[in-house]
Amino acid sequence: MYFRKLTDLRIYVKGYEPPVLIGDVLYIHTEEAKAKRVISKLYNIGGKPVIDLYYKCILSEQQGIENHMLAALQYSIKSYSNVFADYGNFHVLKLREIEKKMRRERHRMTAFVRFKHGRDSLYYSIIEPDFDVIPLIIDHFEGRYADQKWLIYDAKRKYGIYYDLNQTVFMYPTPGNQSSGTVDISLFEPEEELYQQLWKTYFKSTNISERKNLKLHLQHVPRRYWKYLVEKETGIHG
Questions:
Q1: 124 - beta bridge partners?
Q2: Are 82 and 45 in contact (CB under 8 A)?
Q3: Which residues contact 81 (CB under 8 A, 6 or more apart)?
Q4: Using an 8 Å Cβ cutoff, are 136 and 105 in contact?
C-alpha cells in the first residue's frame, strides 16, 4: 500500500473476495523482507503486545479483520504514537474485541480439553474451537503434560499439534486420512472405556440434583463445549 501509494484499499483473503465492479484487483504474495519491515514497525510502535494483538487477530479468521488491522496501523503511524489503547477509535476497538474473544476461547480450550488414552501410550484430543487457537495453547499443554506424549487435533481446520516428550510440532494429515471429528474405538487402550465409565459414575454420584443451577452452569460451561467432556455423556447438567 505504501510502496504503491494507494489511498483507497480493501484487503480480502483469497477465495473470499467479492466481485469488483470499480477498481483493480491485486494479488499479493508474501515477501519475507517486506513482512519483516511491517513487523518491525509494529514492534517499534507498541512492542510485543501489539505483535501479539495482530497475531491473535489473524488467527481469529474473522471476515474483514485485515482492514481493521490496516486502519489501526495507519492511525498509529499518522499519530506518531501507540494508539492501541485508544478504545475511542473504532478500528482499535474492533481489534481489542477480537483479542478478548481469542483470550476467552484459549482459556476454554485449556480448561475443557479432555485427553483419551490411545495406542502406543499416546494421549489425544479432538477439538473444534470457534477460532484457530491451537498455536496459543501449546505452552499450556507443554507445561502441564510434559511427561507424556499427546496430540491435539483441530477437526474444523484439519491440523494439529503433537508433543513427543521433547518438542511440539505441527502436524497435517495426508489427503484421505483426515479426521471427521470422530475416533475409531480401536484406537483406545483396553482400559480407556473403563476409565471413562468410572469417571461418569463418579460424576453422577457426586452430583446434587437439588442444587442444580443450569443457568449458572451454562455461564461457565457453554453447551458447545459439552462434546469435549466425558461427564456430559451422563446427561447430568451440573
A1: 116, 151
A2: yes
A3: 45
A4: no
Pairing mode of beta strands 168-171, 116-117: unpaired
How would you classify residue 80: left for phi > 0, otherwise alpha for psi between -120 and 50, otherwise beta?
left
E strands within the chain?
Answer: 116-117, 122-127, 149-154, 159-163, 168-171
- Which residue has cell 484439519? 158
Give residue 79's identity as a one-letter amino acid code: S
Amino acid at 104: R
In whole angstroms, give the CA distance from residue 118 to residue 153.
Answer: 14
At 219, is the secondary structure helix, strand, or coil? helix
Q: What's the DSSP call for residue 237? A: -
Nearest 5°: the CA angle 28, 31, 37 is: 115
Q: Are the C-beta atoms of 228 and 125 separated by less than 8 Å?
A: yes
DSSP H helices, 120-213, are 134-144, 192-206
Distance CA 141, CA 58 (A): 22
Rounded to whole angstroms, the maximal C-alpha distance in the chain is 68
Question: One digit per residue, pLDDT tens: the chain, 238 residues?
Answer: 888 888 888 898 887 777 877 778 888 888 999 999 989 999 999 999 999 999 999 999 999 999 999 999 999 988 988 899 999 999 999 999 999 999 999 998 998 888 887 777 788 888 889 999 999 999 999 999 999 988 898 988 988 898 989 999 998 876 545 444 444 434 444 444 544 454 455 445 556 565 665 565 455 566 665 565 555 554 444 4
CB distance 70 to 9 below 8 Å: yes
Q: Which three-class secondary structure state does DSSP give residue 118? A: strand
